[in-house]
Design a protein that fits this description.
CATH superfamily of the largest domain: Protein of unknown function (DUF541), domain 2
Helix content: 40-55%
Organism: Eiseniibacteriota bacterium
Shape: elongated
Distance between the termini: 63 Å
Pfam family, one: SIMPL
Strand content: 35-45%
Keywords: Membrane, Transmembrane, Transmembrane helix
Protein name: SIMPL domain-containing protein
Radius of gyration: 36 Å
Length: 247
């Protein structure tokens, strides 16, 4: 009897293992199918918004210098240039509140022998300063930057740099543009779902892309975003990636 029972138990074991394997396989297949179904129930789209703005703040910089064999003479010439630069800017309607003058920078030049080797003797001192004008009068300062070379005619060694243009209301605009880009994404998702015979449901997730601030009508893009300061007119582009539930 015991031998027969052991035999029956031994013959039943493979059947039990087979049944268990079938259950596990069914569970794996069901789980995979559920994951696929969940993946298929979501649609992810990209929405964008673009606006063109005109900069409302400008910064213009220039440098002026004086050079002489004597340090005292270089300083006197630089002080004279400083006074004439200030007078010129005041005459162009730039008040002191919009004007700043940087610290004096000094470069010492050493005399050289005929073979090009430098000696310890000083041949000249070059002193320079920077001037910066920051204003909301964008058009006026833009014109000033073009005309400032008139100072060269007064004997001032001047180097003028291109103006930098900024838009001070950018933080508020970014919030509005993200909302616009999200609405654009929803519109795209609705169109895609409608073409597939479905409807979109609740928002599953959203990811904000980088902002692109480029010269107007530019096609430049960068994975890290662009923040152009060289152009008066700019295009601002916002991008979002949004996932919706499908029904």
């Amino acid at each position: 009897m015991n031998a027969n029972a052991d035999l029956r138990r031994g013959s039943a074991l493979p059947s039990l293992l087979m049944a268990l394997a079938i259950v596990i396989a069914a569970w794996i297949v069901a789980g995979t199918a559920l994951q696929i179904a969940n993946a298929r129930s979501t649609i992810t789209v990209t929405g964008s918004a673009r606006r063109q703005i005109r900069s409302d703040l400008v910064t213009w910089r220039a440098s002026f210098a004086a050079q002489s064999p004597s340090l005292q003479q270089s300083y006197a010439e630089l002080a004279s240039a400083n006074a004439r630069v200030r007078s010129y800017l005041h005459g162009k309607g730039v008040p002191d509140s919009m004007l700043s003058i940087g610290a004096i920078q000094t470069v010492t030049f050493r005399a050289r022998l005929a073979n090009g080797m430098e000696t310890g003797a000083v041949s000249a001192y070059r002193l320079s300063q920077t001037v910066e004008v920051r204003s909301t009068d964008v058009d006026g300062i833009t014109m000033l930057a073009r005309q400032a070379t008139e100072l060269i005619q007064q004997g001032i060694e001047l180097e003028s740099y291109p103006p930098e243009y900024l838009y001070t209301k950018l933080p508020e605009m970014k919030v509005e543009m993200l909302a616009d880009a999200t609405r654009d994404a929803r519109s795209r998702a609705e169109e895609m779902a409608r073409n597939a015979g479905a409807r979109i449901g609740r928002l599953r997730g959203a990811r904000m892309g980088v902002f692109q601030i480029t010269p107007a009508f530019s096609t430049q893009i960068s994975d890290y975003g662009i923040n152009d300061t060289s152009s008066l007119l700019k295009d601002i582009t916002a991008v979002v990636s949004v996932s919706f539930e499908l029904r």
